[in-house]
Each structure stands twice: as C-alpha cells, then as structure tokens.
Amino acid sequence: RVDTKEDLTPVTEADQGAEKAIRAVLGAARPRDAIVGEEYGAS
C-alpha cells in the first residue's frame, strides 16, 4: 500500500516498517537520544 505524506510525497508500508524497526533498535541502544526519521519525524 502507498499513502501520501503531508508534503505530498509517497510513503509505503515498507518505508514505515523499516523506520519502526530502526527506531526500536536505536531506542533500545540509546534511550536518551532523540531520533529523527523521514516517515515519523522526531521523537
């Protein structure tokens, strides 16, 4: 499935899934660090 982000660029389920996986690994390894991603912005 392909959705459109607020800036009108496409984003796929694979894009979102990859970012979620990366955020999970980074968040576990570096819980105090902020993460900025393309699909979900900053956390």
What does this structure look like?
40% of the residues lie in helices and 23% in strands. With 43 residues, it is an alpha+beta fold. It has one domain.
Keywords:
two-stranded antiparallel ribbon; 4 strands; alpha+beta; elongated
Summarize the structure.
This protein has 43 residues and is an alpha+beta fold.
Q: How would the blueprint of this fold be written?
A:
Elements: E1 2-4, E2 10-12, H1 13-29, E3 36-37, E4 41-42
Antiparallel strand pairs: 1-2, 3-4
- What's the arrangement of strands in the largest beta sheet? 1-2
Strand tally is: 4
- From the helix content, strand content and strand pairing, which structural class follows? alpha+beta
In terms of DSSP E residues, the strand content is 15-25%
Shape: elongated
Q: What gap, in angstroms, lies between the N and C termini?
A: 25 Å
Helical content class:
25-40%
Any idea what the radius of gyration is?
Answer: 11 Å
Q: Work out the helix count.
A: 1
Mean pLDDT, all residues? 93
Biggest β-sheet strands, sense, barrel: 2 strands, antiparallel
Unreliable runs, pLDDT <50, ≥5 residues?
none
